[in-house]
UniProtKB/TrEMBL annotation:
The lineage of its organism: Bacteria, Pseudomonadati, Pseudomonadota, Gammaproteobacteria, Cellvibrionales. It comes from Spongiibacter nanhainus. Gene3D superfamilies: Rieske [2Fe-2S] iron-sulphur domain (2.102.10.10). This is Rieske (2Fe-2S) protein. Belongs to the bacterial ring-hydroxylating dioxygenase ferredoxin component family. PANTHER family: FERREDOXIN-RELATED (PTHR21496), RIESKE DOMAIN-CONTAINING PROTEIN (PTHR21496:SF0).
Length: 104
């Protein structure tokens, strides 16, 4: 496992969204209601980018087909076509004044 720094803590606030590509990982870091989430940045249904997805409470809504995912668990809450797997979540790692992730 290797640590990858993503952002300085001072830059994080509610509404923050930023995508990262680290090797084969497509990631989306966001902050909602004071909570930080690191998820895959492409919808597991059809790989549509989630960077502009609507967020209602802790539910992320894919802009392409309105699939809904719970940000806290990654669980699919609603799908409009065929079912798909849950959204991948990644554990955030805090080091000093930065937040990052450990990846293979």
């Amino acid at each position: 496992m290797h640590y990858y720094s993503l952002e300085k803590l001072i830059n994080l606030c509610d509404g923050y969204r930023k995508t990262f590509k680290i090797d084969s990982h497509h990631l989306l870091l966001l902050q909602v209601d004071g909570q930080r989430f690191l998820i895959e940045s492409l919808c597991p249904h059809r790989a549509y980018p989630l960077s502009m997805a609507d967020i209602q409470g802790h539910v992320l809504i894919c802009p392409k087909h309105a699939y809904c995912f719970d940000l806290r668990s990654g669980q699919v809450k609603h799908y409009s076509e065929e079912p798909c797997r849950d959204l991948r979540r990644y554990e955030l790692v805090y080091q000093g004044n930065e937040v990052g992730v450990m990846l293979d």
